[in-house]
Write a structure and sequence with these properties.
The complex is a heterodimer of chains A (517) and B (325). Chain A is mainly α. Chain A has one domain. Chain A has 23 helices and 2 strands. Chain A has a two-stranded antiparallel ribbon with strand order 1-2. In chain A, a hairpin with a 6-residue loop joins strand 1 and strand 2. In chain A, helix 5 packs antiparallel against helix 14 and helix 9 packs across helix 21. The longest helix of chain A is centred in the N-terminal third of the chain and has 35 residues. Chain B folds into 2 domains: 192 residues, Bordetella uptake gene, domain 1 (D-Maltodextrin-Binding Protein, domain 2); 122 residues, D-Maltodextrin-Binding Protein, domain 2 (3-Layer(aba) Sandwich). In chain B, strands 1, 2, 3, 4, 5, 6, 7, 8, 9 and 10 form a 10-stranded mixed sheet that branches. In chain B, helix 4 crosses helix 11. Classes of the chains: A mainly alpha (517), B alpha/beta (325). At the A-B interface, helix 3, strand 1, helix 16 and helix 21 of A face helix 2, strand 2, helix 3, strand 6 and helix 7 of B.
């Protein structure tokens, strides 16, 4: 097998003391950056580029450091999702839905350990996917034209209702709100301005990080202030529970992990879709598969933690496929990594595997090393992370606010953006009061632009003939899934409501969830 | 030919230019690439950052910021309104930048809004198809376009009316298409994405710069029907020019930099001098060669003169083609 000898050469390149230290440093910093709201994998890698550059690291060493940060941040994002209900980065958004309820039930340690293992499984198999079927996958990615992309993004929105709330109308409203926000800024097709009111800060559109930090972190702080004023000091849920994963649960979740890894990986391979779509689709498919009646998902089901974490870490590996083989980044972070490769005078594309085999296989070996290192780093640290929950809320919340302000200002260097974040915070607080889920808003902001641009491209190609949208078997297949995903929850939703009114304790849990999503 | 003579002229002018060594030193040098990573503008910034640092022309490593949107308009507005006095900032520019200025797409901006710092290379446009495309040469493609302009979709990395859009229009006009605006153009955000559009079969032809297609040309995934250059490239003698196939159209895309108009004279002199020194280095010339970019040098005041002339030329052309009224 040529692949294995190549991989062995890759390990020979990657396994030096310096490289291992860099991988450790990258994993540690990455986990930290992933856990801090506002700092995600993309900015984590971007921040370290000048450091790698100034240290004069060679191509392989730089790539090992930066990919370790990448994988580390993908692991780290879940930590604040589970403990604080604030996603550390955008793909970790879905982990809030079941991760935080688990923490509230005193199972924070278990949630962290399970999601750590899920992250490992997702990225481990995705890296194998990268090794074994990368050339094949490029062909799959090329089956997607503008019409297919539009269908794919529509599918994400169509399956929303089944995921986030019992009230479909509110989900739809939230998604529409997100799509509306994504329209702000200059239009990438013609360069004309939309909804910017001549305001220069809005030319670029609204960065989804500002929206995420505002909607989740700042609104959390506002809710705390509100409760505190009412006299009832928010009680801190000090129960942490076991720190090791329940192997029975793990065994039961093998199906979940398999499905989520495959879905996440494929979503990652498609340029433009990325890890957020990967974790979202993994979660919604899992919910539709094992919990059609909505009894346990959203209330602390371990599978609701495992699915998105497998999904987004698998997508992280998948996103490397189009970047290496086509020179087209599949996510924000791979766009930054692509820039690094170009800076090192390595041109990704069809000839990369032939012209720079040492770089490619060294990189892949580095991914395996980073992955094992992260598992070893993350499981023992679960106990440390969970200490966060022991911090009294009145101290924790100001810290959250501070990190949010510093994070956003550090990212954009603009006070306008900080004010906008606060605005989103008040908006998020209001939406929570009205029981409107926040996840669809973020999804709308994340995917809205790509969805619109692909629709316009498709119609331009077909001269305005809408039938192009169902012009290929692949597109029809995606539309079929979208319609099923939209209709099924309506059908099963009635049953769910019956179950809920029959069971008071479950209703209480529903309250918890509403506060939580 | 006009371009080439201009190139020669400006090179001669440049030789007479001796920048005095001034005390200015950028503290936080930054290069804005007005598009995502992987495109031509990004290459300008990355290459400049790398070479300036390696030649020790800047003390600290230059930070590269990708600011995409509006075909460079977002970055242009950012520079002119928010950082007009920033001495440490340079911005990647190319024909796309001057084309958009010429067409009045950057609202309220004109040739004087920024200081044109330097041009250091030029690259020629190509029209390419997938390897299994029925179009074997430029004539077959143009015949199909003449028969039904809506039957062929062109993809490019610039928005509607941008330079990737103008290139096929120039050729079609030479082929005898009366209303070149009938040409079907699909805008992608950058050459990389346009390439996936071509390879996936969503569009039939890609209009781009040679460097964007080179890897796929060498691997045999795409066939280049024509390069819009005055003569064949030295390194690629098999690639036919549009001119020798009977369509006398030239699409030259220069590569360079601008900086804020309000920067101090010392800063402007420092940067013009640093970029000039960089272009003289062997390492930089190698980087250009690797990307099949031909040398094309204007610095400081010469670059100002060149860019303003270019803007006028494109405005005239756009009026002729009918993009600009």
């Amino acid at each position: 097998m040529e692949i294995f000898s190549n991989l062995a050469d890759g390990f020979a390149v990657a396994l030096t003391f310096q490289h291992l230290m860099l991988a450790f440093l990258g994993c540690f910093l990455g986990t930290l950056m992933g856990a801090l709201p506002g700092l995600g994998p993309a900015n984590g890698v971007a921040i370290l580029i000048p450091i790698a550059f100034t240290l004069g690291l060679g191509p392989v060493a730089s790539l090992i450091l930066l990919t370790s940060v990448y994988y580390g941040a993908m692991y780290g994002g879940r930590i604040s999702s589970i403990l604080l209900n604030i996603p550390g980065d955008e793909p970790a958004m879905m982990t809030c839905l079941d991760g935080h309820p688990m923490a509230l039930q005193g199972k924070a340690g278990e949630a962290l350990a399970l999601s750590g293992i899920a992250s490992f499984i997702g990225s481990f198999f995705a890296t194998w996917g990268l090794v074994l079927i990368a050339p094949l996958l490029v062909k799959v990615a090329l089956l997607f034209g503008p019409a297919e992309y539009f269908a794919l993004f529509t599918m994400a929105f169509a399956t929303l209702g089944g995921v986030t709330a019992s009230n479909q109308g509110k989900s739809a409203f939230a998604a529409a709100l997100g799509l509306g926000i994504s329209m702000i800024g200059s239009d990438s097709q013609t360069g004309s301005e939309r909804f910017t009111f001549g305001h220069i800060h809005l030319y670029d559109g609204i960065d989804f990080l500002i929206a995420i930090v505002g909607l989740f972190a700042i609104s959390e702080v506002l809710i705390f202030i509100e409760h505190h004023k009412g006299g009832a000091a928010a009680k801190s849920s000090a129960k942490i529970g076991r720190l090791m994963p329940d192997f029975g649960v793990l065994k039961k979740s093998i199906g979940t992990m398999t499905r989520s890894t495959i879905i996440g990986f494929l979503a990652g391979v498609l340029p433009g879709a990325g890890a957020s779509l990967g974790s979202f689709l993994s979660y919604s498919v899992e919910k539709n598969t094992v919990d059609r009646e909505g009894k346990t998902f959203g209330k602390g089901d371990p599978r609701g933690v495992i699915a998105p974490e497998c999904g987004n870490n698998a997508a992280a590996g998948g996103a490397l496929v189009p970047m290496l083989a086509l020179g087209v980044p599949g996510s924000g972070t791979t766009a930054v990594l692509l820039a690094v490769l170009l800076q090192l005078n390595i041109t990704p594309g069809p000839l990369l595997f032939r012209n720079n085999p040492d770089i490619v296989w060294g990189l892949i070996a580095a991914l395996f090393i980073a992955n094992f290192m992260l598992l070893a780093l993350n499981l023992p640290m679960v106990g440390l992370f969970t200490r966060v929950l022991l911090i009294p809320t009145r101290i924790l919340m100001p810290v959250v606010a501070m990190i949010s302000f510093v994070g956003i200002y550090g990212l954009t260097g603009s006070t306008f953006d900080v004010m906008m974040m606060v605005g989103f915070g008040f908006g998020g607080w209001l939406l929570r009061k009205l029981g409107v889920p926040l996840v669809p808003v973020i999804l709308g902001i994340l995917l809205g632009n790509e969805m619109e641009v692909n629709l316009r491209r498709a119609l331009q190609i077909s001269d305005g003939d809408w039938s192009i949208l169902v012009g290929s078997p692949l597109a029809i297949g995606i539309w079929a899934i979208a319609v099923t995903g939209f209709v099924l929850p309506i059908f099963f939703g009635k049953k769910v409501k019956k179950n809920m009114s029959a069971d008071h304790s479950e209703e209480k849990m529903d309250e918890v969830m509403k506060g939580g999503d | 030919m006009k371009r080439i003579s201009k190139l020669l002229l400006s090179t001669i002018l440049m030789c007479g230019l001796a920048s005095p060594l001034l005390a200015f030193e950028p503290e936080n040098p930054e290069c804005i690439a007005p598009a995502g990573p992987g495109g031509g503008w990004d290459f300008i910034c990355r290459t400049t950052a790398k070479n300036l640092f390696q030649l020790k022309l800047t003390k600290s490593a230059m930070q590269v910021t990708n600011m995409s949107g509006g075909g460079g308009g977002v970055a242009f507005a950012h520079v002119t309104t928010e950082r007009n006095n920033d001495n440490d900032l340079i911005v990647a520019a190319s024909t796309s930048t001057t084309a958009r200025l010429a067409q009045g797409i950057f609202k309220g901006a004109n040739a004087d809004s920024v200081y044109w710092l330097a041009t250091f290379g030029a690259e020629y446009g190509v029209l390419a198809v997938k390897k299994d495309s029925p179009y074997k040469n430029l004539k077959e493609l143009m015949d199909a376009v003449l028969a039904d302009p809506r039957s062929v979709a062109f993809a490019g990395g610039s928005s509607v009316g941008g330079f990737d859009h103008i290139k096929p229009m120039l050729v079609a006009r030479k082929a005898g298409l009366k209303d070149v605006r009938q040409l079907k153009y699909v805008a992608y955000s950058g050459g990389g994405e346009a390439m996936t559009g071509l390879l996936s079969g969503a569009v039939q032809v890609m209009s781009g710069d040679f460097s964007e297609l080179r890897g796929f040309y060498e691997s045999g995934d795409v066939r280049i029907l024509a390069i819009l250059a005055p003569q064949r490239l030295k390194g690629f003698p098999d690639m036919l020019t549009a001119r020798e196939q009977g369509y006398d159209a030239i699409g030259a895309n220069w590569r360079g930099l601008y900086m804020p108009a309000g920067a101090s004279a010392e800063a402007k002199a420092f940067w013009a001098n640093a970029i000039k020194k960089m272009t003289e280095s062997e390492a930089f010339q190698k980087d250009l060669e690797a990307k099949a970019i031909e040398p094309f040098n204007n610095f400081g005041e010469d670059a100002e003169k060149f860019a303003k002339g270019d803007i006028k030329e494109i405005a005239d052309l756009s009026r002729e083609i009918g993009i600009l009224k």
